[in-house]
């Protein structure tokens, strides 16, 4: 009896041992498979668009939470490539190729002359090229009055006019973006002013760019408990705002491109900013981090970190120096209160626009419809942080508004903020060219989300992941429909709400009346 019981126990132990071995083998196979998948993901996420970085950086594994969205990212990039034909068709449309009015000499921001040349009217702002020896680490200066000798950043500055920052299909914009994305960085210092960390980068050809580092993952939404004035600035929002502004036909956002930066080689090793250099440290997991000095989010708790030294960011082309082309800062009449408890006057006064329309410079010219253009851009990208705007002083009040500082856009895709549209709703005024392009972007063959996806796919960081998650692109279509509905209500209520800035354009709906349908 005891022998039988002993044999039964041995058999049971043997079965348990076999089961344990089989279970361990299954776990081992699963871990090997997961490791292989993570390595593939790492290679996809951290392939560099330029070869400045070390092989160690390129092979650094990606965060595990990114694996769930990798397949969707690849699918979105392919979708963007398919819809490039829509983008080309859009930019070939007559609404984007209207004959511009003849430009006079005083319609250009800057004018080039050689040192010592005479005969230029003193009303012009002249850019004087100093043909001196170049600084150490910089390219030799071989510029003259011929545009072909100018670096892309200088051609961009010289192309700024009274009406726009650059012309439609300006070939120099693509060259400028490419140089921003790959040029060697010879200097990096912290940009003064503002509430969050940003750097001023300088290149060998004396060009400069404003660098905003990645603060949160692209697919993350803004924390619902944060006020709009406490939100992070997002690098991909700056990039997306440039593309959206161009698609809307405004061309009032300076060119912006994404780039992967080696925070040691391209920032720490080249900075002369000792205050910035003192904020570098190595995180517990071996990543190189820094935080700089600013009003918000500049501390070890809110540091920006490489992986281990590779950092995503946006680079925006700098506008001409203020000593050459001063800019005037204007308070936005629909500025928010920036208070946790108080409301601004426009939020409680439905007729607020009546007083604005009687106040210079909104009482004449195009300033009011310029502001409505900016309002539509901000509503589409859900930017609540438009407290001021700027114009070039030399052009007076007869010029466009520069759409700067869009870092707090594209924070949430699950919720729209109707209060951003208040200037349009209260004033019921819009350019005919803007309305015509909005209607065009609502059509299936030019759908806004499709052309945005295609445009963003050209950015170098699109090889890492799409610049905007799909829900953000879907939100653009939804918000565009909201804008068109608001305009339709204005037409029904007031009839004549269109400022006709393209009287010679042969639009079938040139004559707008309250009964006309927008869609």
UniProtKB/TrEMBL annotation:
Annotated residues for binding of Mn(2+): 233, 405
GO biological process, one term: enamel mineralization
Domain FAM20 C-terminal positions: 280-493
Subcellular location: Golgi apparatus
Name of the protein described by the UniProt record: FAM20 C-terminal domain-containing protein
InterPro entries the UniProt entry points to: FAM20 (IPR024869), FAM20_C (IPR009581)
Organism: Electrophorus electricus (Electric eel)
CDD domains the record matches: FAM20_C
């Amino acid at each position: 009896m005891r022998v039988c019981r002993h044999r039964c126990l041995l058999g049971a132990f043997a079965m348990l041992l076999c089961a344990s071995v089989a279970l361990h083998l299954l776990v081992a196979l699963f871990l090997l498979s997961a490791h292989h998948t993570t390595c593939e993901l790492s290679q996809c996420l951290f392939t560099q668009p330029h070869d400045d970085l070390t092989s160690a950086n390129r092979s650094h594994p990606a965060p595990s939470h990114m694996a769930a969205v990798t397949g969707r990212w690849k699918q979105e990039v392919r979708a963007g490539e398919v819809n490039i034909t829509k983008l080309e068709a859009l930019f070939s449309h007559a609404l984007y190729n209207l004959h511009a009015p003849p430009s006079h000499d005083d319609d250009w921001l800057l004018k080039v002359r050689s040192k010592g040349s005479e005969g230029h009217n003193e009303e012009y702002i002249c850019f004087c090229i100093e043909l001196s020896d170049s600084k150490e680490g910089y390219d030799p200066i071989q510029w003259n009055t011929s545009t072909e000798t100018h670096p892309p950043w200088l051609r961009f500055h010289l192309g700024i006019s009274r009406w726009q920052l650059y012309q439609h299909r300006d070939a120099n914009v693509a060259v400028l973006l490419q140089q921003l994305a790959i040029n060697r960085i010879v200097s990096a210092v912290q940009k003064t002013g503002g509430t969050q960390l940003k750097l001023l980068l300088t290149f060998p050809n004396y060009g400069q760019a404003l660098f905003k580092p990645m603060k949160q993952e692209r697919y993350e939404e803004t924390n619902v408990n944060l006020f709009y004035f406490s939100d992070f600035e997002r690098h991909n929002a700056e990039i997306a705002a440039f593309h959206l502004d161009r698609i809307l036909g405004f061309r009032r956002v300076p060119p912006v491109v994404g780039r992967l930066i080696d925070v040691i080689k391209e920032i720490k090793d080249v900075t002369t900013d000792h205050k910035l250099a003192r904020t570098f440290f190595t995180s517990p997991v071996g990543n190189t981090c820094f935080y700089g000095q600013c009003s918000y989010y500049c501390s070890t708790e809110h540091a920006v970190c490489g992986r281990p030294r590779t950092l995503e960011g946006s680079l925006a082309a700098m506008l001409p120096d203020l000593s050459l082309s001063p800019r005037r800062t204007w308070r936005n009449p629909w500025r928010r209160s920036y208070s946790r408890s108080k409301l601004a006057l426009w939020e409680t006064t439905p007729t607020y626009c009546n007083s604005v329309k009687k106040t210079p410079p909104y009482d004449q010219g195009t300033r009011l419809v310029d502001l409505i253009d900016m309002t539509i851009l901000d509503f589409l990208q859900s930017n609540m942080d438009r407290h001021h705007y700027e114009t070039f002083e030399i052009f007076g009040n007869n010029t466009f508004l520069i759409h700067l500082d869009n870092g707090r856009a594209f924070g949430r895709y699950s919720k729209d903020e109707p209060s951003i549209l208040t200037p349009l709703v209260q004033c019921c005024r819009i350019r005919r060219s803007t309305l015509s392009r909005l209607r065009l972007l609502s059509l299936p063959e030019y759908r806004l989300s499709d052309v945005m996806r295609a445009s963003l796919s050209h950015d170098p960081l699109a090889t890492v992941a799409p610049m905007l998650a799909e829900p953000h692109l879907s939100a653009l279509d939804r918000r565009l429909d909201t804008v068109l509905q608001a305009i339709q209500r204005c037409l029904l209520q007031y009839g004549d709400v269109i400022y006709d800035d393209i009287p010679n354009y042969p639009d079938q709906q040139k004559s707008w009346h309250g009964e006309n349908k927008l869609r």
